[in-house]
Amino acid sequence: MYTTPSFADEISNEMYATGTRGLNCCIQCATCSAACPAVEFMDHTPRRLIGMINAGLREEVLDSNTYWVCASCYACSERCPKHIQPSELMYVLKRYSIWKNRYRNDLVGPDFSRRFVRTIMRTGKSYEPGYAPAFIFEGGVQGMLREMQMGMKLLAKGRIPLIPSRVKRLENFRRMLSRIVPLEGIE
Amino acid sequence: MKRYAYFPGCSAETVSASYHLSTVETGAKLGVEFQEIEDWNCCGATPYSNVDELLANTLCARNLAIAERTGLDVVAPCNACFKNLYQANEHLRADPDLAEHLNFALEADDLHYGGSTRVHHLIHVFVRDVGLEAIRQKVTRPLKGLKVASYYGCQLVRPDRADGFDPAGPHYFEDLMKAIGADAVEFPYRLRCCGASLMIGHRRAALAMVRDLLRGAAQAQADVIATACPLCQLNLEAYQKDVNREFGTDYEIPVLYFTQLMGLAMGIAPKKLGIGTELVSPKPVLECVARKPAAAAAASKVKVGQP
Q1: Which of A35, B71, B270, B280 could cross-link A75 (Cys pair, CB 3.0–4.6 Å)?
Q2: Is A104 part of a structural domain of the chain?
């Protein structure tokens, strides 16, 4: 008989695919939450989020800011007594939410990530001034101006070049990426 | 002469040019040559893994494949570049299916990765391959009396790696600072995250994380924070004023790369080390270096005068 995987299975399967353990062995000890330096800014602590996933609370999980507040510092992964890697879980949830186009629209993270990826696909290298528009989502025009001020300070010290750098064999580079993902619309 | 395939990372061309300069300068003093990986590309940082894991690994694989042709080990000065290259390498070596898939993509740039490249962080190269004794011998202006908070950051030590360095209680950064004559103060937040790209993704969280680090350094009475990562340096230094504005604090702690401190101790001119492009003045550090020969001379005179 045909069945669809539960939300908890979907997420755990993604974890297995990255070579890490699934969430079903979580003992809810909260070591991850205690290790997290950004936990006070999360809607739900990492422990609670894992519990919510295992309980199948898909909408509540995707509506939370928790996984976009993760800075990928791996403190949780290093300490988990069950060798779950909560930092990988946060990556999985970010990818899942971008894939499903289902995340809170007051967050800067998704837009910034997409801008970053587009920049690399175009040029092969990162260029900071290109990300300033992401701030419109958080701080409005004021937020963007604030970022430009910082940019000017760094520019004055010669720490931001006016012309972005790019890889030399750009055509090959882009052909390489097109063998992994479709590049349509990224020019 | 030791040689490495050097992966500068995107920020070496922008905000952390001083890290790049000081790496090359101190390397030359110690007989280490950093041969830039030809036509390297971005390591993907964290945003790439946010969007697509396979793509993130592809970016790293291209750099590893280009480096493999030279037969040299890869060295990255940035914690995030190091972590990405190291992990992608481990994945590629352990997973033949992934390697086959990525090699199909690499063909488009006439490349193939065989899995023989090793990846190191710059500080590991200095501490392990060059060695503290060789460094000590090159020190002409020991940073006597300079209190340094040795800040590893997070991705340098995590997640678990088989590189022989203790991830939970490392001490090589402090050892290195002592080797150049500085006073390595106890800095409890040395392994805690600087906020990284949350400075863009969640400003308030990142500023609070930087505040905690600055508070820790201030409590340790550090004259300077030494970093081994461009993002740590940028967050701790360039956003220090923003932290002060947000939390009503008045921190003014210079943040330099460990290679800059090494260079100063080896008598390299500050300008050659990219010093002078900071937003928080490193004056206390430069004063310590400038004071040194005179103070040493005075001290030896006293000794001569004594019976």
Answers
A1: A35
A2: no
